[in-house]
Structure formats: C-alpha cells, structure tokens
C-alpha cells in the first residue's frame, strides 16, 4: 500500500522576500537565520522551520440525509478499504390523469422505466440485476425529522414486482425497462376503468400503492453501482379491439421528490468498525495515530466519512519575538494511496476544505482541491490554497485558535451523488510498496518574519 506522508516544508522567497522585508523594517536591526545558520545583515531575521506538522483524523457521522437530493443509485460492491456497500432507492408515484376506458379497451402491460445518468462505480463489463419491489406502507417522515437518511429503510411486499438483467453502457443513455407484475397492471387498469377514487385521487393512491424500491437483489454484490435519474416512471399499456387496434398508455409519474431517498447499506471492515454507530448526527472522530488506523485517513461522504486536518503547532510561531509574520503562500497537497484507487475505484473529481472547530461542524469553504490524476504514480494529488486560512490562524491571539481545522470532503456537487472515495496517510504512514517520501502528502509553506532587536 502506498503511503502518503504529511509534513511541513518551509521554503523561502529569495531576493524578492528580502526586498519586501527591507521596505518594511526601516532602520530596525535584526538577524537573518536559515535553520541553524545565522546571517547578520543588520536588518532582517528569516527563520526556516521544518517541524510544523498537521494532525489528521477521520470523522464519522452515522446518518447522512439522502432524501430530496435528486440522486438515485442501484447496485453494490465489496470495497477493500470500506467494506460491503449496497445501494437501493425508494420512489412514490402519482396516478395518471383520469382516462375514460369504455367497452373495447384491453390491458397489455405495466412497465417501469429507469434512465441511468452515466454515473457508475465498479466493473461496467458485468451484467446488473434490477429488481422492482412494492413498498409495504406509505413513507412518512418521523415526527422530529424532515428527511430520510442513508440508513433508513422501508419494508417491501413479496413477490417481486419485476426483474431484468442488463449490461449497460455508461457512455450513452440507456433505458432499463422492467416489466411489472401483470396482476398489478390489470388491477390498475380495472380501477381506472371503474373510475375508482383509489386511482383517481392522488392521496388515496399513495395509501393503496406507497411506491417502489429499486435494488440489485439480495444475493452477492454485483461489484457495480449505477446512478440513474430520479425521473423514474411507469407506463400502463392498453389497446382497443377495433380494426385499427390502436395502442395507448397511461403514465404514472414520479412524485414527492422530498420523499424519494437512497438507502446505502455499509458493513464496514477494520479499522472502520471502531466507530460507534447508532448515534444519528453525532460526529465521531478517530485520529490517524490510533494504532488500529495505522496512520490512515478515510473519506467517503455517502458512507459518513470525511477527513479533518488540524494545525495545532501553528501557534508556536506566535511565541517567537517577531514583529511581523507573513505567510506569502501555503499549499496543502494530499496524495491518495496508489493501491486504493483505479478506473473502478474512482477518486472524487474534486474536494473542498471547509473551516471548522472542535465541534467538527463545517462552516465556510476555504479552498477547493483540484485533482491532478495520473494512475499509479505520485503525480496524482489534490492541491488546496490555504494561504489566507493559515495567516488568519497565525494572527489569531485567542486560546481556541489551535482547536480549529479543515474538514476535507467532496464538493456539494458530488457529496450526495457519488460513492467515489479517498484514502491517504499521515507523515508517519509506512508504505509497503516504496519509500514513504515518494508519495508524500504535504503542506508547502512560504513564510517571512522580522524581529526587533532594539
């Protein structure tokens, strides 16, 4: 496993930095020091420090809201870092407009239409099973909640309404057609033919037919997940018995987007089993230095995992007798463990760094990490500009400044719509594949300071 090592390296702006300090220092006498070497030019002191180290941890929240996000997935896979993952999605449907069906109209079929959105995770050369099952009771929010979460579920009735096995092409928009149980289709047709309020009244229809759950079944994971549009719909096809034999359809459209949600089942493996579950929105935190975590950090937001980067030793700079402290540039570079990602186990297209404190609740976005992707090499990395953030922390005299940090997770665009994940190590992670310095995660800091000697 390729290790990412987190460390600080202090690099200096040569003559440009010196000229800037000359202008600011005036006639103040100071020293120039590089590491242990002191140079006295009568004006400026510049100190090179290479012991400033960030602290890394994995954050976990048991429940992630997935309702009303317009996101739907089906499938599952066995992840070597996160364990078994299985997704399934719940939908409600509205009845079609009232249709007058007299003598001479006959039922043909009831079909569920599922349109993939080109998102996939896993091996797309494998076939995928799509199962449609009827939800047993109407989906209602709990009294104190207005969302459904990744760990929510509703019982379904048996038998299965319909099933199809397909091989999809992610690069094109295929449609999955699932023919549903003819008994259900004929019942819908008869209700419409009799103008029953069970199907002409939307509220009564939801009680009678609470919706459909789409899954990949109950067997082994297919090692594949497909995303699809939330605009799932059913069509009831029927025909006339006249000589023209005209074909017609009634459409049951997806409705109640706030109730549509995705269940994400995760059976974690070590060390993620160490997180306590069943605490809803309580954020749990385990540092990379925990012996079970082996100096690794895990990010997969739909499973509840994000990363935190803290800079508790930054305040040590404040204890130095300096009159000016300027961070001219700071970049946080995170490099994933090379064995952890591939064309099947994809990385998030982008990550964001959001400011936080000891509560571990995200506040404002500090920087967006741009992904440079080069499979199998140390050139794959996320780069964050954290110049302003570190300068603010350096200049903050309060005693709680050291408790702040950055939460690292995918941007809002991908947070709820992707299972792409990210695993990286701290400065002490030891790679079994190559030298730890080859796959470094690091902060590159350009820093200038002056010191009065009057």
UniProtKB/TrEMBL annotation:
Pfam families according to UniProt: DUF4270
PROSITE patterns from the UniProt entry: PROKAR_LIPOPROTEIN
InterPro entries, sorted: DUF4270
Protein name: Uncharacterized protein DUF4270
Organism name: Dinghuibacter silviterrae
């Amino acid at each position: 496993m390729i290790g990412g090592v987190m460390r600080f390296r202090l690099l200096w702006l040569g003559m440009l930095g010196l000229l800037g300090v000359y202008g600011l220092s005036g006639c103040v006498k100071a020293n120039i020091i590089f590491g242990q070497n002191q140079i006295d030019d009568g004006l400026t002191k510049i100190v090179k420090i290479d012991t400033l180290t960030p602290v890394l941890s994995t954050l976990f929240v048991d429940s992630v809201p997935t309702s009303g996000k317009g996101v739907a997935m089906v499938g599952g896979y066995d992840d070597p870092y996160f364990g078994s993952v299985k997704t399934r999605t719940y939908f409600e449907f509205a009845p079609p407009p009232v249709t007058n069906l007299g003598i001479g109209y006959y039922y043909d079929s009831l079909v569920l239409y599922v349109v993939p959105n080109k998102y996939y995770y896993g091996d797309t050369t494998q076939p995928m099973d799509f199962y449609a099952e009827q939800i047993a009771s109407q989906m209602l929010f709990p009294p104190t909640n207005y969302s459904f979460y990744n760990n929510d579920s509703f019982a379904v009735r048996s038998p299965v309404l319909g099933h199809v096995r397909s091989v999809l092409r992610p690069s094109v928009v295929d449609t999955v057609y699932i023919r549903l149980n003819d008994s259900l289709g004929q019942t819908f047709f008869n209700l419409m033919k009799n103008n029953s309020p069970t199907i002409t009244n939307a509220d009564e229809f939801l009680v009678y037919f609470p919706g459909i759950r789409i899954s990949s079944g109950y067997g082994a994971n297919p090692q594949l997940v497909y995303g699809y549009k939330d605009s799932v719909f059913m069509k009831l096809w029927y025909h006339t018995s006249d000589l023209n034999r005209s074909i017609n359809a009634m459409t049951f459209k997806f409705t109640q987007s706030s109730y549509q949600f995705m269940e994400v089942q995760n059976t974690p493996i070590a060390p993620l089993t160490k997180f306590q579950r069943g605490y809803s929105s309580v954020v749990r935190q385990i540092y990379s230095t925990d012996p079970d975590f082996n100096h690794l950090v895990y990010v997969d937001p739909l499973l509840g995992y994000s990363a935190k980067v803290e800079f508790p030793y930054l305040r040590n700079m404040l204890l130095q007798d300096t009159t000016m402290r300027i961070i001219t540039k700071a970049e946080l570079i995170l490099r994933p463990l090379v064995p952890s990602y591939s064309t099947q186990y994809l990385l998030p297209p982008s990550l964001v760094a959001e400011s936080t404190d000891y509560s571990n609740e995200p506040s404002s976005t500090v920087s967006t990490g741009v992904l440079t992707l080069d499979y199998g090499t140390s050139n794959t990395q996320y780069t964050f500009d954290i110049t302003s953030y570190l300068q603010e922390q350096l200049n903050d005299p309060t005693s709680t400044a050291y408790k702040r940090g950055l939460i690292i997770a995918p941007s809002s665009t991908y947070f709820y719509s992707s299972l792409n994940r990210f695993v990286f190590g701290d400065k002490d992670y030891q790679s079994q594949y190559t030298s730890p310095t080859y796959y470094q995660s690091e902060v590159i800091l350009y820093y200038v300071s002056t010191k009065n000697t009057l």
